[in-house]
Amino acid sequence: MAESFHKKIPGISFWFSITWIILVTTIAICADFLPLLEYDHMDWDNPEASPGTCVEKQVNDNNGEQIYQKKIYLLGTDTMGRDIFTRLIFGTRISLTIGLAVPVIGLIFGGIFGMLAGFYRGKIETVMMATMDIILAFPGIVLMLAITFYLGPGIKNLVIALGILVIPAFTRVARANTLKFAQSEFVQAARMMGQKDVGIMIFEILPNILIPMAAYALMLVGYMIMVEGVLSFLGLGVQAPVPSWGGMIADGKEVLDQAPFIALFPSFIMFLTVLSFNLMGDYLRNLVDTKEGQL
Amino acid sequence: MNNSLPARTLEVKNLSVKIHTSHNIIQAVNDVSFNLQEGKTLAIVGESGSGKSILCKSILRLLPKSAVVAKESRILFNGYDDLSLLSQKEFNKIRGRNIAMIFQDPMSSLNPVMKVGKQIAESLLHHMGMNRKQAQKKVIGLMKSMGIAMPEQRFFQYPHQLSGGICQRVAIAIALACNPKLLIADEPTTALDVTVQAEILDLLAFRQSQKRMSMILITHDLGVAIGRADEIAVMYAGKIVEQAPAEELFSNIRMPYTRALMASIPRLDNPPHTTLACIDGQPPNLARPAKGCCFAPRCSRAQDKCIKEEPLLRPGIKKDHVFACWYPIGEAS
Amino acid sequence: MMVFLGKKLFRLIVVILAVTAITFLMVNFLPGDIAITTAGFGASLEDVEAIREDLGLNKNIVLRYTLWLFDAAQGRLGQSFLTDEPVLEAISQRLPVTIELMIISQMFALMLAIPFGIISAYKSGTNIDKTINTLAFSVMSIPTFVMALLLIFAFSLKVNWLPATGYVPFSEGFWLNIKSFLLPGFSIALVEWGYLMRILRSDMISTLQEDYILMAKSKGLPTVYILFKHALRPSCFTLITILGIQVGHLIGGAVIVENIFALPGIGSLLIAAIYGRDYTVVQGCILFITIAYVMINFFVDILYSILDPRIRFQNRT
């Protein structure tokens, strides 16, 4: 493996990434408690309002009295007059849910399969790896389209489908690393002390394969956010009115000429988030520097 | 080239090379000077890590980026005043054309994905202005003269299809393709079978006498050097510690280190099961050079002076036999 | 070499069988009844039964799979529910567009990746290397569809040099045709080159430390010549494998680019079929793309061994 351009000492890119990831995650979790506008409120008087637009409106409050309500569209409104800033924040939830849930599924199932295959070898390994090869033989995005087509769109189906797709890669990483440790002295020692296979796998092998697998998982988060973007962009992901970055970009695509910011804001946020996860993953991979992590 | 005889092919003056590692700076070559006359062979002998390879690579500018040649170093080559003053482009006209090199491991020094014929032809195409057809003809002739059977077939083969011995013959063919004035052979036989070693050395000696080529033969085996070289320089810790004509050195060893090297050669006339002498202790740490003689910690003759003061290279009874030792063998200090 | 080929071929057949079976099963375990869906609204029970008979839906599933496989092998993939166009015909009409997009985008990606990869490896550790790497890492974090929108925004809307969407067939002129592929091609290439560059760079750095590079230098060959003639080829094996896999991905992955730029390729056919819930077309497309993908990977494997003489001859010597 060639040396990477990122040093092992955390540099500015590392601190940037981790700050951005923490910021985005916190906002996604707290979105409900933040003083935001409603993400699905359509202000038909102000579609495609430019960023920073301030509107005052007469509305009836609960007691039937007329009051003035002041609204600021920080990042403008989309084609249906919905506040982009609010939708961006709620879109974060979708992206992060998929971006984090999918690698976790891969991590759990791939880890179990890979450890079993690497630990017991023999027929279990042959059958398991052949199955994984067949899943890998499918072109990812097409299988993705097929699954959402047959199961119907929706965040749950999306997570299941993507999860199945990433299990083989995790299985390979886990197996390769298990093979490395299965013959090592501390495993032999544990066996002689009378520890059961399950115990060896959990207490001796798992801690050692966790870091390379986590590095791979982090690299995958960015990719999954992009895949969710593609599917939502095509209208096959999360369904309206729930906002997602991909859907927002698709919406802005139609008015790229008059109101480019509608598509560009979510694009930029998506880019920053994906970049941050990629940088983090690269940093972690450099730390462990295993070839298997690359796949 | 029209200088009066004996013409000097190569003159190295005060060559020093430092290598920067992540932790410290290593003085790999320390103030080395020597001359090489036309048609002669100089053997540079030393343990691994003595700096002999770095020395030769620095002549051909093949050092890694981390190595720095000292400013006062001068390398004068026949017709060119100072090689280190040449631009990269000018230097490339000499490299491969006038000075060529053979490397230790023939298998790894040939490009695995290029046909060997092409690898030999390259320098002909590049330096001699030949076209492909002329070059191919010349290459097949060259391969034949290197003792490679069926050169027409071998021309189109890849290195991994050939044996180590044939690969080294190919490497020699590459080096000799343009009839260089100077050949640097960096342990040309170390990676080969013992039976092939002599053949390769004989081949080199034969070609050398034919073309009046000068040669620097680098080896860790004093036995190889004694039979083949006109002059022998013994290197230790980046310095030349003893240098003399081969016969003189063989009969009158002055430096204890050279004697130790000599004793470690296996000899046929020894009785069976003789234990080979080896040199005690570790090679010196080049990152922190000692104040006195570098060999002193391992030397059986070392005295107080050896540890305190560094001996300089000086001639003994004979003018052409120089050594760096306070208490040389067989000569009063 | 023959053993090697035989093993690969066996694997290929197993994978194709598995892949076709999964594609077949997906349609069959569909929620809802295909016969009813096909018959449409207001069809009588007899109509549905007739269609069920017609499609062979009441037979054993293994038998049906075998029959379907034989049909598919002969190119009988059925007809579109929406347009009655035979599926194979629809695919073969759109294939050239997808292939052209693939070739153009990969060419652009390589044109960027190879020079940058070589410079970056040769200058490894310097600021040039760091700049190129940061750039590559950044573009890899831009999704293709965002890149496509950025290019449209910059080159069609701001300066109006290139058409934003639309496809000009080859028959209407070579340049017009190429022009309609420029933005789609670059949308893919500008994201992909970073990936390819990093792979080439990492292999190239280890190649440059080989003895034979030192040997080439000692021959007095110019640096550029050494980089391209001696170092590039032994550093290319991973790149070519990845490129092959990438091409396989693109048959399906071009979906989004074809969709954005309204190129009538297989991707847009698939998307249109998904929107229209046109089962036979979706199944046909998935089958076709998957088989093409598997086959391409197979040939990449073979190509890999031809390129690297060390593998090519390993069974002979």
Search tags:
heterotrimer, B: 333 residues, alpha/beta, eight-stranded mixed β-sheet, four-stranded antiparallel β-sheet, 12 helices, 32% helix, globular, C: 317 residues, mainly alpha
Give a written overview of the molecule.
- The complex is a heterotrimer of chains A (295), B (333) and C (317).
- Chain A is built from 9 helices and 2 strands, in the order H-E-E-H-H-H-H-H-H-H-H.
- Chain A is mainly alpha-helical and 295 residues long.
- Chain A has one domain (2-288): MetI-like (MetI-like fold, Orthogonal Bundle).
- Chain A has a two-stranded antiparallel sheet.
- In chain A, a hairpin with a 5-residue loop joins strand 1 (53-60) and strand 2.
- Chain A starts with 11 loop residues before the first helix and ends in a 7-residue tail after the last helix.
- Chain B has helices spanning 52-59, 88-94, 106-109, 116-127, 132-145, 151-154, 164-176, 194-211, 222-228, 246-251, 256-263, 304-308, and strands at residues 8-20, 25-37, 41-45, 67-69, 74-77, 99-102, 182-186, 214-219, 231-236, 239-245, 314-315, 322-323.
- The two termini of chain B are 41 Å apart.
- Chain B is of the alpha/beta class.
- Chain B is 32% helix and 21% strand.
- Chain B has 12 helices and 12 strands.
- With 317 residues, chain C is mainly alpha-helical.
- Helices cover 76% and strands 0% of the residues of chain C.
- Chain C contains 15 helices and no strands.
- Chain C has helices at 2-28, 34-39, 45-55, 61-73, 87-122, 127-140, 144-158, 174-208, 211-218, 223-231, 237-253, 255-260, 266-275, 279-307, 309-312.
- In chain C, helix 7 (144-158) packs across helix 8.
- The mean pLDDT of chain C is 82.
- The chains are: A mainly alpha (295), B alpha/beta (333), C mainly alpha (317).
- The interface between A and C is large, with 44 and 58 residues.
Return the average pLDDT of chain B rounded to an integer.
85
The CATH topology of chain A turns out to be MetI-like fold
Alpha-carbon Rg of chain B, integer? 21 Å
Q: Determine the oligomeric state from the structure.
A: heterotrimer
Structural class of chain B: alpha/beta
Strand content of chain B: 15-25%
CATH superfamily annotation of chain A: MetI-like
Work out the number of β strands of chain A.
Answer: 2
Write the H/E string of chain B, N to C: EEEHEEHEHHHHHEHEHEEHHHEE
Distance between the termini of chain A: 12 Å
The CATH class of chain A turns out to be Mainly Alpha
